[in-house]
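Recall the central idea of this unit: under ordinary conditions, the amino acid sequence of a chain determines the structure it adopts. In this exercise we apply that idea directly, starting from the sequence alone.
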Amino acid sequence: MTPLRQRMIEDMPVRNLALNTQRAYLEQVSRFSRHFNKSPEQLGPDDIRAYQVYLTNEKKLAPSSIVIAVAALRFVYKVSLKKNWQFEEVIPAPKLPQKLPVVLSPEEVIGFLSCINSIKHRAILTTCYAAGLRISEAVQLKTDDIDSKRMVIRVDQGKGKKDRYVMLSPVLLEILRGWWRVNKPRHWLFPGDIPGQHISAYPVVWACHKARKISGIRKVITPHSLRHGFAVHLLESGTDVRSIQLLLGHRSLATTARYLRIATSKVCSTSSPLDLLPRTVCADPKPSTSQSF
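Accordingly, the structure predicted from this sequence is:
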């Protein structure tokens, strides 16, 4: 292990970066180093620019993938190598396209969840929808996190290392009790195949993909789609954006506010100007008879 790699490994936990973020940063810096067959200490702004051009033009990576590489390079040069650069100029990040998430209707949610054969996977994905949890948060729930007396679920150290509480649906509580009676988990609510560890997200994602095929729903469905559905369906039922922000654990209200653009109760509540015209537009107008002067 090189001294720089060791320094970076020490710097990341000090700044409380998530374990997955640490792994991603190390991998991205390692790829950068292998591309030039040199240590980042020996590489400068021109090399970084050439590498970004390579990722964009030759590797044809999506902007979201390049953003991860940019974040990793900014970290190693700013924190571990302590470069006094204008990082927005030396290591610019690509502008990400603003895409709206695909949202299932309530009827599609019912149809999708009913196509999941495994009681464990169905309980996990139902929890994602009922409480708006990320899949990483749902699989890491502990039995003590389910508070049936206060009817809340404690999310322990969610994204951004933040705790929060979300509502515990009475219907979800019965589903989780049914799951508990079958498996009787002690520590992790959804234990994995390895003793003492919770289930990983991968089998749940695979179960999600399989259930989508069985359901015949054409929309792309991931566990995160259920979290999107949670937010949009709450908006459509009249819940205010600030409450949804707290439930989702968003740092910025602007992140939550994007759901306003896809909530039908908000988008469709305004009449189209076509409906306000004094006369109805003929759908199939008759062609006018041409006349000679």
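The chain has a mean pLDDT of 89.
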